[in-house]
Amino acid sequence: MKKRVTRSKRLEGREIGWREHVALPELGIASMRAKIDTGARTSALNTDHMERFERNGQHWISFTLPAAGRRSKVRYEAQLEDVRNIKNTGGVPETRPIIKTTMVLGKRAWVIEISLADRENMKFDMIVGRTALRTQRLIVNSGRSYLAGDPIGPAPLELHET
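Request: output the structure for the sequence above.
Response:
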């Protein structure tokens, strides 16, 4: 006799809300609110004071996160993966640097690409786009929030505030 699987069992562990807490442990961020935005292809992180530089023949970028839950700003450095034209929320193309970093959502951790952008006037410091979600086969419930729970994964790196 074939066992019947209920809808709730099929979605268990795969359903997330339109808002979630995520961690970016390689950037020292233990938890931040993020909007899950399937209308956006690429994820975006609110940054400022971006400066590109070279290290050992590789392209790098340094930046600060203005609202990472700290009193003072922390300077981050990451290897520059790409530079792409990405439409902002107004539909206007912007040239944005892209980095790769590990994101933790609930009990899942995986490497995603994030564009760095000035999102100062937005409600969320980070949006998670559909490309980041695709490999995890997650289902977004647009009527609910924080279904994945707090991020459980690698401990964030300790960074020194400036």
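The helical segments are 7-11, 130-134.
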